[in-house]
């Protein structure tokens, strides 16, 4: 299973998704390392190889599945040791089958478990021996290390699956001397019928709290340098440097960016100068040359939140533009900051995240909720 081990490699400018798992490489001694598996079928085992070449590496023992007692092993800079009574359950065939399954998963295709469960569904819809034989073959095609968890049921494991594909009078690998009874078979069939109902209910179930992912497509707030307001600014109005004057403690700043840079400095003269310059880029240059307020780095996110809240409170038309983005992910570019900008996935996108948060506040106000954090609707 892929789990959370997600990685990628770049090929001709294309991002190829991948994952990794632990393995031993035998290069004289045995080295504990990571085996990287990619969606295009290439595998990195101290060198990028095709699936066919990977199979040769397995057969030759370069990727080791047998660990002899007394052999020297290394975790590179972590540790070195000798094997003592090693136990391993993988064979070259099993590891190759698991890697093939991983490639299917990375591509969103049914793996051997998915193909088995599809064959079981076909059998349950048309209970002929031919269909059962196909389901049994599909079950045996699952790597033995993965069969116990094919149903995703930690209590039953794969017992109902084994019984179903064996059929009444058939035999299970775990009990070769005891034939499957009709009662056990009926119980397995009932299990799959209940499972089908549960799966159907789960797929149609709507989370009580709403969807986990956005419904609206993401919106990219590209870098721009607006110098004057527009009658129809679109999402450019959501940028911090958009010329929407805001009042902060009795001082009017040409934009949220101006206010941010003014508040960042402890120098009163610099603050006054920043409030008077025309562009946000000029405000930033003045701030960079002035002394920074103590604790600014730790406080800046809260300060920006307050400034953006003021911006949308003092400019309702801009608040409507933010609300019109619905629940879209907001990706904010900022060539001067990897903290505030997303910058092609290399930044932290804090401006985008704060805009989404403030959008939620605006929706809460529209819905009649008052008091941030009180959760009490307006009466």
Q: Helices and strands in order, then pairings?
A:
Blueprint: E1 6-11, E2 14-27, E3 29-38, E4 43-44, E5 48-49, H1 51-60, E6 63-64, E7 72-74, E8 80-82, H2 92-106, H3 112-125, H4 129-141, H5 144-147, H6 159-166, H7 182-204, E9 219-221, E10 246-248, E11 251-253, H8 256-264, H9 268-276, H10 280-288, H11 296-314, H12 316-323, E12 330-332, H13 350-366, E13 369-370, E14 376-377
Helix pairs in contact: 1-2, 3-4, 4-6, 6-7, 8-9, 8-10, 8-11, 9-10, 11-12, 11-13
Describe this structure in words.
The chain is elongated and about 90 Å long. About 40% of the residues lie in helices and about 15% in strands. Strand 3 and strand 4 form a beta hairpin. It is built from 13 helices and 14 strands. The longest helix is centred in the middle third of the chain and has 23 residues. The mean pLDDT is about 90. Strands 1, 2, 3, 4, 5, 6, 7 and 8 form an eight-stranded mixed β-sheet that branches. Strands 9-12 form a two-stranded parallel sheet. It has a two-stranded antiparallel ribbon with strand order 10-11. It has about 375 residues and is α+β, with helices and mostly antiparallel strands.
